[in-house]
């Protein structure tokens, strides 16, 4: 059983705090993603777990052992970096074998292990070649093979797919997820690509400015974001968020935006105490797929908006609409909206699905309902 525990981890570079208050508990065999924008502290966190960077505060435990100040090579950790870190003068075979040679493993055993991982990653035919002659996808497989061959307690991967084209990334997502589950080694994967995290992770750690924003399953992060940052970082196209004033209306509460009013579910408003916030300005969030469109005047689609731009993607249509000072993106199935046309300037009716409306605190961004 290899649990990975990080307590109160902190890293300062001079006066700058790159990582702070980071607590992570990874169960044995879990596939965890560190997700966040560039510069939020993902790589620094990973380097402290690997031993390549010493923390300014906090602790790291691997399999119950305190490894906080232990050098990288004494930790049982396998890594893949963004630039792969392969030796150009060595063949693929020797690159993969290198960590085993350092451990003075018998030649026969090395050949056997390299052969096995090469087969798993389908790179047997390039074992005698040098890295310079390989494609991006092959290089990535070699780097992963070199990590796997060590049979470490924990695997750490830093943006290993960033050099692959979109098609190969899609294919590798499924393959890597399958591989991680079949090997069962506790793994942390760093990415700024929310799709990668959403499709592969058991749980996602969303980071911003050195701090953890949320640590939960992909579905939980998507459906119950902890704050406006998480809500808008996860999901494509991103969630629409705009200012509204909460108003009392016929015993219930509505959200008044610039030029339109959004009805709120009465039971939900009651359960979240929104009547106590009447008069307050809050941020209202709704994902593009939770706004349905109809012809202007159609029943149940009482919010009128002007079509500003139209982007067909095949199965779906993206519409950008303007109402008052607010611009909203909607995402609808082509079948449902075929009759609406795509002429910019057309007036359309919108319906906000009341089950998927979020409200955020305008100050700290935390989800209030
Ligand atoms: P990216 O996705 O761009 O790699 P990241 O989330 O991995 O970003 P880090 O590389 O961990 O971010 O960097 C976090 C912050 O710490 C950044 O502002 C970076 O400039 C800073 N930083 C990282 N390493 C050092 C260093 N050795 N000295 C000073 N500042 C550093």
How would you portray this structure in words?
- The protein has ten helices and 20 strands.
- It is an alpha+beta fold.
- The model has no long low-confidence stretch (mean pLDDT 95).
- It folds into two domains: 4-233, P-loop containing nucleotide triphosphate hydrolases (Rossmann fold), CATH 3.40.50; 240-360, OB fold (Dihydrolipoamide Acetyltransferase, E2P).
- The chain has a six-stranded mixed sheet, sandwiched between helices. The protein has a five-stranded antiparallel sheet with strand order 13-12-11-14-20.
- Helix content is 26%, strand content 35%.
- The site of adenosine-5'-triphosphate has 12 residues, from strand 2 and helix 1.
Task: Give a quick precis of the structure.
Belongs to the ABC transporter superfamily. The chain is of the alpha+beta class and 369 residues long.
Question: How are the SSEs placed, and which strands pair?
Answer:
Layout: E1 4-13, E2 16-26, E3 31-35, H1 42-50, E4 57-62, E5 65-66, E6 77-80, H2 92-102, H3 107-120, H4 136-149, E7 154-158, H5 166-183, E8 186-191, H6 194-200, E9 203-208, E10 211-216, H7 218-223, H8 228-233, E11 240-249, E12 252-257, E13 260-263, H9 266-271, E14 281-286, E15 291-295, E16 303-312, E17 316-323, E18 326-333, H10 334-337, E19 347-352, E20 357-360
Parallel strand pairs: 3-8, 3-9, 6-7, 7-8
Antiparallel strand pairs: 1-2, 1-4, 4-5, 9-10, 11-12, 11-14, 12-13, 14-20, 15-19, 16-17, 16-19, 17-18
Helix pairs in contact: 2-3, 2-4, 3-4
């Amino acid at each position: 059983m290899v649990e990975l525990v990080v307590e109160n981890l902190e890293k300062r570079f001079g006066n700058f705090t790159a990582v702070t208050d980071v607590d992570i508990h990874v169960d044995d065999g879990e596939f965890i993603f560190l997700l966040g924008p560039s510069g939020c502290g993902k790589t620094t966190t990973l380097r402290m777990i690997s031993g390549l960077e010493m923390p300014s505060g906090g602790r790291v435990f691997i399999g119950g052992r305190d490894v906080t100040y232990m050098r990288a090579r004494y930790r049982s950790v396998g890594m893949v970096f963004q630039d792969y870190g392969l030796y150009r003068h060595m063949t693929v075979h020797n690159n993969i074998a290198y960590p085993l040679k350092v451990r003075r493993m018998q030649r026969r055993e090395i050949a056997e292990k390299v052969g096995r991982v090469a087969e798993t990653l389908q790179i047997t035919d390039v074992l005698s070649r040098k890295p310079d002659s390989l494609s991006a996808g092959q290089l990535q497989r070699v780097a992963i093979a070199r990590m796997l061959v060590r049979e470490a307690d924990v695997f750490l991967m830093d943006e290993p797919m960033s050099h692959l084209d979109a098609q190969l990334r899609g294919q590798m997502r499924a393959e890597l997820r399958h591989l991680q589950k079949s090997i069962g080694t506790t793994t942390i994967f760093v990415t700024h690509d929310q799709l990668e995290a959403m499709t592969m992770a058991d749980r996602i750690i969303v980071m911003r400015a050195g701090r953890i924003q949320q640590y939960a399953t992909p579905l939980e992060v998507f459906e119950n974001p902890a704050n406006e940052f998480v809500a808008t970082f996860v999901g494509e196209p991103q969630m629409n968020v705009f200012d509204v004033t909460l108003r009392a209306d016929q015993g219930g509460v509505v959200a008044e935006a610039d030029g339109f009013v959004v009805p709120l579910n009465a039971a939900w408003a009651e359960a979240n105490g929104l009547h106590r916030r009447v008069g307050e300005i809050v941020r209202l969030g709704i994902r593009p797929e939770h706004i349905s469109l109809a012809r202007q005047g159609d029943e149940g689609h009482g919010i009128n908006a002007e079509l500003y731009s139209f982007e067909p993607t095949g199965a779906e249509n993206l519409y950008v609409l303007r109402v008052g000072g607010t611009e909203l993106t909607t995402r609808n199935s082509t079948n449902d909206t075929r009759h609406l046309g795509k002429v910019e300037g057309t007036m359309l009716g919108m319906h906000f699905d009341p089950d998927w409306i979020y409200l955020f605190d305008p100050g700290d961004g935390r989800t209030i309902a």
